[in-house]
Design goal:
- The chain has helices at about 25-50, 65-80, 90-100, 110-140, 150-170, 175-190; strands at about 10, 15.
- By secondary structure, the protein is an all-alpha fold.
- A two-stranded antiparallel sheet has the order 1-2.
- Helix 3 (about 90-100) crosses helix 6 (about 175-190).
Length: about 210
C-alpha cells in the first residue's frame, strides 16, 4: 500500500501501518537520537562528579556545590529535551501504531511498557509545564531571569521535571528500536518483482506457428 506522495507504508497480514519513511518522521527521530546522546553525556558527567564529590556513604563533601551541580544537570537535561517536546506525542503515536501489527517474534516484551512509561512521563512534563507557566504569571513583575525569585522558581521546576526527563533518556531508545524493526519488517514483506519487471531467466517466448 502507498501513502500520499509515493511514501510506502508497512503492510502486514493484520493491515497497513502509517508511514515510517516520511521526511518529517525521520527528522523527529533524529531529534530524539540527539537528545538520547546528549542526555547520556550529561548523566555520565553528573555520575562522575557525584562519585568524586561524595563520601563512601554517598553524602556530598560540599552540599552547596553539590546542589548547584545537580541543578546544572537538571537544567541541561531539560534544555536538551526542548527539541523533542513539540513532536514527542507524535513519536509515541507512531511507535504505538508501528508496534501493533509487528510479528510477535520481532517484538521485544519491554517495548509496550516502555512506551507506557514514556507517555506517563510526557503527561507529567506537560502538567509541570503548565504549572510553570502559572508560576511565571504569579511572580511579581520585578521577577525576571537573573533575579532570585525567578531563578529559584526555575530551579524547583527543573528539579521536579528531571525524573520524567530521565525516563525519556532511559527508555526513549524504544521508539527508535520499534521504528527500525518496523522498517525491516516492511522490507521483508515487500512484494516480489512482477514478471514484467523481472522476467524469469531461461524462459523464451513461444514462437507462433
Amino acid at each position: 500500500m502507498t501513502a500520499k506522495h509515493g511514501t510506502p507504508n508497512i503492510t502486514t497480514p493484520q493491515g497497513p501501518v502509517i508511514s515510517t519513511t516520511s521526511d518529517s518522521h525521520r527528522a523527529t527521530l533524529k531529534q530524539l537520537s540527539a537528545f538520547l546522546r546528549e542526555s547520556t553525556y550529561i548523566l555520565a558527567n553528573w555520575n562522575y562528579y557525584s562519585e568524586e564529590n561524595t563520601d563512601l556513604d554517598g553524602w556530598p563533601f560540599d552540599e552547596h556545590a553539590y546542589g548547584l551541580r545537580q541543578h546544572q544537570r537538571d537544567r541541561e537535561t531539560a534544555e536538551a529535551f526542548e527539541a523533542v517536546r513539540p513532536t514527542a506525542r507524535q513519536l509515541l503515536a507512531t511507535a504505538e501504531e508501528q508496534l501493533a501489527p509487528l510479528p510477535a517474534h520481532t517484538v521485544q516484551p519491554r517495548w509496550a511498557w516502555q512506551l507506557g512509561t514514556l507517555r506517563d512521563a510526557l503527561d507529567r512534563l506537560d502538567t509541570l509545564h503548565q504549572e510553570w507557566q502559572q508560576t511565571c504569571a504569579d511572580l511579581p513583575l520585578t521577577a525576571r531571569p537573573g533575579t532570585p525569585a525567578y531563578d529559584d522558581a526555575l530551579v524547583d521546576h527543573y528539579a521536579e521535571a528531571w525524573s520524567y526527563l530521565d525516563d525519556w533518556a532511559t527508555h526513549g531508545h524504544a521508539v527508535i528500536d520499534i521504528n527500525t524493526t518496523a522498517r525491516s519488517t516492511q522490507s521483508r514483506l515487500a512484494p516480489p518483482p512482477t514478471a514484467k519487471s523481472a522476467p524469469v531467466v531461461g524462459r523464451t517466448t513461444p514462437v507462433r506457428r
